[in-house]
Amino acid sequence: MRETLTPTQAKKGRHNNRPTRAGKEGSAGPGDQSLRRAALIAGSALLGLTVLAAYAYVAVIGGLVVDGDATRTASNIAQAEGRFRIGVACFALVPSWMSSSRGGSGCCSHR
What we know:
With 111 residues, the protein is mainly α. It has a domain at 43-101. Helices cover 66% and strands 0% of the residues. It has helices at residues 7-12, 30-64, 70-79, 81-102.
């Protein structure tokens, strides 16, 4: 048995006449809020990881490491030890944060 669509439903592309939690066609269902919340958390986490990785790369690698001059690099790191430690901690947080969000046990764990 084929479902008959009203002209308004056909125009809007609604092919589902099931009532939702609000009782209106096309409104958010019960799972939509939890899905939206999960998407917002994942997006925020990804943005946070991007900021951490960018800071670590720009502040530590770009600001302290001198290509081809290990002595100057070591001197830069000794002069800015706190900034270097924060950068290394940021680099360490990115893979650990990713593995914990996937439920893995390390940066290279695969499902």
